[in-house]
Every structure is written in C-alpha cells, then in structure tokens.
Amino acid sequence: MKLKSIPEDFVVAEISDFTPDAAGRFFVYELTKRSLATLEALSIIARKSGMRAKDLSAAGLKDKHGLTTQLFSSTKALRTDVDDDRVTLRLVGKSTDKLTAGTILGNRFEITLRHLNARDVEVLPRNIDEIKRNGVPNYYDNQRFGGIAHGQGFIAKALVRGDFEEALRLHMAVPHRKQNMTDKQNRRLAAKHWGDWDTLHKLMRNAPERALVAYLKNHPDDWAGCFERITPSLRKLFVAAYQSYLFNETLRRLIAAQGLDVIETPNKAGVLSFWRELPPDILDVWTKRELPLLGPGTRIDEHATVEAHLNATLQAEGITLEQLMLDGLKRTSFSSAKRSALVFPHDFQASPLVEDELNEGSSKLTVKFDLPRGSFATIVTRRLVLREDD
Question: 87: which strand partners?
Fold first, then answer.
C-alpha cells in the first residue's frame, strides 16, 4: 500500500464549532494548504503580510503531505491573495479570542490507498467490517514522533533523565534526511565540533541552532538555559512525542493483557498491536475507557484497571513519574491529560476498487470517514490492509 502519492490522495477538512462574532478583535480565516505543514503555511502568510508568525494562531496542526483545510486566527486583517499557489485563504469572520484546539470537534478525511496488490484486496472486506464493528486502538502514529532524534532516542527522554546536554545534542547534532542541506551541514558540524563553541559558531551557517551555539560560547555549562532557547513549538513537540510513545506502550500492554487475537505491526516508535474482534463486554467498557497521558499531575492509583500497565511502561523506560516534573527547566513541561483507548471512524464509506493509474497492475481504494480531534487517520489506513502475515 502507498499513501500520499499526490496531495489529493490525503484530503483533510477540519470540523469546527467556531461561531463568528462581529464584535471580536481577532480575524478568522479558512486556510487550505497543499504539501505544507501548518506552521510552514502560517510562516509564509506572516512573512508575506509583514507580521510575526506568533500573531497567527491555528486551532490545530494538519499533515504536511496532503490537501488540508483548517481555521486560524490573526491579530490583524490579512490580504487573502497570498502570492503562493500552495496556500489559499478565505475570511470567515471574527472572534473574541484567538483560536485554540478547543474549537475543533474533529476532522473529515478522504484518503486514497494506492498500489494495492491482490493480497491487500483480499483482506479489505473483512478488515472494513471489523473496523466498523470494533473500532481501532487510538494510537498516535508516526507523524507524532518528530521528537525522536532519528535512531538515537527521544529528546524528551533525555530531559526526563536530567541530561540536558544530551537533549541539546540530539536536537543540534543529529541530521536526518528530510532536513534541507543547510540544516544537515550544521548538524554534522555540531557533531564534529561539539564543545568547541567558538569553532562551531564560525563554521555554522545562519540558522536558529547557530544562536544556541552563540549562547553556549558565553554560558558553556548552562545546558538547561540553552535548551529553553529552542523555539517553544519545537520544545512542545519533543515533549508530546515522548508522552505519546508512553501512551502507545501502555495501550499496547493493555491490549496484550486481554488475551485477544491480535496482529502486530511496527511503526516509527515501537510496535502497534491491533485486535480483530472485541468481545461485547470488552467493547462496551473500552468504548468509554480513557488512558492517562502521563504527566507530573497523573495519579496512577486513580487508574486501577491500567495501573499495572502504566507502571510497566515506566519501568521499561527506566523512569519514574516524578521525573516528568523536569526539574531544572522552567518553560518546558509535561501536562497531564486523558485520551480514549478506542476510536470509531464515523460515517465510514469505501468506494469500489478501481485500477491505480499511477501504479500499473495494482488497485486503488478511496475511503471517507470522520475522526474526533487528535485521532490519526493513518491508524485506520494501517488497519485496513493489515494481514496475519505482516
């Protein structure tokens, strides 16, 4: 199976409860973007409007590789004819406050699965039926794990352990293939000259990381202070990535403890277990079950049914709940929350299979469904083509 061969293969429309308020002081726009991450699109809009990116606030973050529509608010009125064919704007009204995630009810997806072979096609009818009846585990998927330093571990795990130098190194000195050449070169230089801040500062090309090196020239022992000079959105991403991994691992352990018929498949951060069938008694309970997103305010003893699995996840990671306080950092933190263990794609529809015009000799399928805020459509598509021999 192939996803996102072209942007039109992954169409996402935000479902919002935003109600315009003519007396509001914020301007709200509908943003349609193509092959851009939300923050990239907002940065383009801000730059072309002579504003700062922080003056624009999106309710949520949408996939880069797709055609997506969402709302964002602006402190000022914007021209809607942005000179970039990847971005379209439409004014939808005004708001008393800037938009936040609280305005999002969910997302509507239209996804084309390509390069389906005969074995994929064979399992689709059964898998579609099982998804409709049993839902899917509400895992986080690969898009959430930008806080992994590409084979060298989670940046936030180093923070939890109090190793702020290692967290900085993972951010500044580990290149990855999706970075541009400047960022890759800077990170290779950082790996080679780590600790020699004068030399590194002279050699690095201009980038946000160069400012971090400048700080280390004058404060060579202040690893925590330097880390907190990283862009806030990136620091939040690092924390969210590790917190999401802890959630996935706890959910996987919970599923394993039920004695269900499961199929396992790898993802960027570990292994995901999917059930085939949920007995009625488990389905009834799990439809209402929430698992904690671990933070310093989590009371594990209040989650008796999953307490053993939460403790097992922490033990496997070699950390304690208290370490999530991130002592030594002032502006970087874990926040406790809850997340549903199971999710049902609403209004699920599948088109007839047809020939894939982009991949000779294979088929394609288009599916449509709604998911609540924060749930990952790619978990549904994984489940659609899951086979016993995967």
Answer: 33
Picking from 177, 202, 234, the residue at the C-terminal end of a domain is 234
Residues 6+ apart with CB under 8 A from 270: 245, 248, 249, 252
* Structural tokens at position 351: 């088109």
**In a 3-state reduction of DSSP, which class is residue 65?**
coil
The answer as to whether 33 is a domain residue is yes
Q: HSE-up of 306 (CA within 13 Å, CB side)? A: 29
C-alpha Rg value of the chain to the nearest Å: 22
**CA geometry: angle at 82 spanning 39 and 184, to 5°?**
40
CB 60, CB 144: distance < 8 Å: no
Instruction: Report the 10 Å Cβ neighbour count for 134.
Output: 21
CB 168 within 8 A of CB 209: no
Secondary structure (3-state) at 358: coil
Residue 389 pLDDT exceeds 90: no
Which CATH number goes with the domain that contains 195?
A: 1.10.1510
pLDDT value at residue 180: 81
The tens digit of pLDDT for each residue in 328-340 reads: 999 999 999 999 9
Instruction: Note the pLDDT tens digit of each residue in 71-92.
Output: 999 999 999 999 999 999 999 9
Residue 113 pLDDT greater than 70, yes or no: yes
Q: What is the tally of structural domains in the chain? A: 2
The answer on pLDDT for 150 being more than 70 is: no
Full residue range of the structural domain in which residue 176 is found: 155-234
Helix (H) or strand (E) holding 211: helix 208-218
Domain termination residue (choose one: 184, 205, 234):
234
Domain containing residue 43: CATH number: 3.30.70.3160
Which run of H or of E encompasses 332?
none
Q: Is residue 44 part of a domain?
A: yes
pTM higher than 0.90: yes
Looking at the domain assignment, is residue 119 inside a domain?
no
Does some domain include residue 319?
Answer: no
